């Protein structure tokens, strides 16, 4: 990833803009934070989906893969619900993610192949300690995305996402989980954490994968 700014990401036409702003940010620095940009029909669909989930729909998130999966309350406390086409809001969201994936493939030649996404709910006191979403050579997760569905987040309510530099571990950015704020970063490169939250924190996470065969469920050979 070229760390030099290849062009000014701010000077784009306002409309072609969201996917291009994402591509430009990823191309220039490997991560991008865009406050309050998620299109309204998407947030409306996601909120409606959330409102229609049963109380028991969120379950404890697991850490690790396959048989090594475990729960670890010291690492992460959030609960999740995988997004599917069970609700039109889920269909709209997954369709938009797929369009974004195709745009990024054309624009950055990332070779992204599939995606997955879940809601996450952090209750008062919940956090997610510093981690990577993928380990080099051990996962086919390439790109991580998060967005938030919380209105009126106050500075003293915690719950920020902190993103660290790949090599130095220096803090790069602290993201307030405000409504429609979009964050993307390369999964293998950027350690990040969620600071303890002091109110309910609703978010959506997604990962884009390449079609690698070194995973738990290899794609069949062609
Ligand atoms: C994750 C994650 C960040 C956030 O789910 O892996 O890092 O801000 N989420 O919710
Ligand atoms: Mn993560």
What does this structure look like?
By secondary structure, the chain is α+β, with helices and mostly antiparallel strands. The chain has one domain: Sandwich (Jelly Rolls), CATH 2.60.120. 21% of the residues lie in helices and 27% in strands. It has three helices and eleven strands; from the N terminus they run H-E-H-E-E-H-E-E-E-E-E-E-E-E. The protein has a seven-stranded antiparallel sheet with strand order 1-9-6-11-4-3-2. Helix 1 crosses helix 3 and helix 2 crosses helix 3. It is globular. The two termini are 29 Å apart. The N terminus and C terminus are likely disordered. The protein binds N-oxalylglycine (OGA) and manganese (II) ion. The site of N-oxalylglycine has 9 residues, from strand 10 and strand 11.
Which labels suit this protein?
alpha+beta; seven-stranded antiparallel sheet; 3 helices; binds manganese (II) ion
In short:
The protein has three helices and eleven strands; from the N terminus they run H-E-H-E-E-H-E-E-E-E-E-E-E-E. The protein is of the alpha+beta class. The protein has one domain: q2cbj1_9rhob like domain (Jelly Rolls).
């Amino acid at each position: 990833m070229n760390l030099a700014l290849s062009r000014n990401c701010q000077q784009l036409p306002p409309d072609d803009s969201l996917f291009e702003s994402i591509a430009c940010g990823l191309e220039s620095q490997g991560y991008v934070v865009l406050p309050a940009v998620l299109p309204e029909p998407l947030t409306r669909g996601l909120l409606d989906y959330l409102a229609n989930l049963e109380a028991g729909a969120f379950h404890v998130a697991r850490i690790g893969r396959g048989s090594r999966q475990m729960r670890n309350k010291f690492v992460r406390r959030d609960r999740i619900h995988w997004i599917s086409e069970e609700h039109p809001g889920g269909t709209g969201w997954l369709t938009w993610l797929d369009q974004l994936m195709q745009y990024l493939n054309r624009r950055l030649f990332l070779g992204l192949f599939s995606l997955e996404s879940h809601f996450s709910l952090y209750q008062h006191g919940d956090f997610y300690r510093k981690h990577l979403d993928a380990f080099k050579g051990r996962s086919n997760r390439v790109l991580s995305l998060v967005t938030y569905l919380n209105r009126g987040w106050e500075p003293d309510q915690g719950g920020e996402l902190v993103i660290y530099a790949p090599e130095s571990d220096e803090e790069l950015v602290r993201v307030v989980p405000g409504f429609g704020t979009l964050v993307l970063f390369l999964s293998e490169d950027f350690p990040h954490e969620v600071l303890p939250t002091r109110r309910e924190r609703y978010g959506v996470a997604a990962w884009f994968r390449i079609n690698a065969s070194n995973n738990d469920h290899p794609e069949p050979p062609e």
